[in-house]
Amino acid sequence: MGPVSGRIRALRTAAGRVTLTPLLVRAGIFVGTLVGLLLAYPAEVVAGQVLGALVVVAVLPALAPRRLWPTFAALVTVAGWLLATDGYDRPIALWRLMVVAAVLYLTHTLCALAAVLPYDAVVDPDLIVRWLTRAAAVLLATSVVGVLLVELTRVGGDNIGRQAVTVAGLLIATAVTALLAWLLRRR
């Protein structure tokens, strides 16, 4: 028996041990990444031959969540957003921005879960529910703060509102950084 047949037998054994929960998490990564890509890129670009490449970009983080592919997919999504807004002059719609940001975060957190979840793991459903509940709470809080900051830009003139949002965003970022540093030292 050669090394190739041994590898084929090991692959067959590993494929027989795969459980449903890790596959569903990875399917969620694929769907989330693809939704983010499709919402970020302009329809004129997606309708062409780029759709196949976007599907490949969405598959990569689902197959290898521990590698650089989740970051790569996020950067490709952001590049699509910039292409749509700057290159194709698509107006920035709040709903689209919020959904793309939410899908990027959800994909990121699912990649973190999949990175520590072996293919053959038997997982308590409560773990997945708690993980997704925490992600939903983060998304809700972020959405509320985001909408408040957008509404704050409408207060006063253009420059005054934008300056206030910039200062508020910096204060929030500083507060989150301080909280994370405090939590890290507390350990």
Q: Which overall shape is indicated by the principal axes computed on the Cα atoms?
A: globular
Q: What is the share of helical residues?
A: over 70%
Order of helices and strands: HHHHHHH
Q: What's the domain count?
A: 2
Rg calc: 20 Å
Report strand %.
Answer: under 5%
Class based on secondary structure composition and strand pairing: mainly alpha
Secondary structure: number of strands: 0
Q: Report mean pLDDT, rounded to a whole number.
A: 86
User: Terminal Cα separation, in Å?
Assistant: 52 Å
Treating each run of at least 4 consecutive H or I residues as one helix, how many helices? 7
Biggest sheet, open or closed, and with what strands and sense?
none
Describe this structure in words.
The structure is a single chain. This protein is mainly α and 187 residues long. It folds into 2 domains: 1-122, no CATH class; 125-187. Helix content is 83%, strand content 0%. The chain contains 7 helices and no strands. The protein has helices at 3-16, 20-40, 43-63, 69-87, 94-116, 125-153, 158-186. Helix 2 runs antiparallel to helix 3, helix 2 (20-40) packs parallel to helix 4 (69-87) and helix 3 (43-63) runs antiparallel to helix 4. 19% of the residues are buried.
